[in-house]
Design brief:
Number of domains: 2
Shape: elongated
Distance between the termini: 84 Å
Oligomer: single chain
Radius of gyration: 31 Å
Mean pLDDT: 77
Number of helices: 5
């Protein structure tokens, strides 16, 4: 009794070409499985197995690879379109900055005049020493300090 293999070409199921090809070879060769694809009757191997030897399996695998690449390109295009729409709408991408150097200009100026130590400045800002140095560098580069 022959088995029948239903092949799903959904982009989420086809991950690795080599793995997919090996699985198909196992199904078609060792298990003597027939392939059925509802929307592609050409690939139905239930009728006339003699026509679908090595050449047809190769074409079948190439078709699956094409579907995979086509789905990936379509997904990337939809993603690019969505990003462009979001950017046009002013959506912020990435992590929001917790600290804004311009909110602490006066604190940095007090430190520059010797009224505060570095440790006191970090405590007032409530940040890590790294964030303190990054914001100070930003203000110096902008010519504010």
């Amino acid at each position: 009794m022959d088995d029948t293999a239903c092949i799903n070409t959904d982009e989420n199921h086809i991950k690795d070409d080599d793995e997919l090809m090996e699985e198909c070879r196992v199904m078609f060769k060792r298990m003597a499985a027939d392939a059925i694809r509802a929307n592609l009757p050409l690939l139905d191997t239930k009728e006339g197995r003699a026509l679908f030897e090595e050449q047809m399996y190769s074409i079948f695998l190439q078709l699956l690879a094409y579907v995979k690449v086509n789905n990936k390109l379509a997904r990337k295009q939809r993603q690019r379109h969505g990003i462009e729409n979001a950017m046009a709408a002013g959506v912020h991408f990435g992590r929001h900055q917790r600290y804004n150097a311009h909110d602490y200009i006066e604190v940095y100026r007090r430190e520059a005049h010797g009224e505060l130590t570095q440790k006191q400045t970090i405590e007032i800002i409530g940040s890590s020493p790294y964030v303190y140095r990054r914001m100070k560098k930003e203000l110096i580069e902008e010519g504010i300090l």
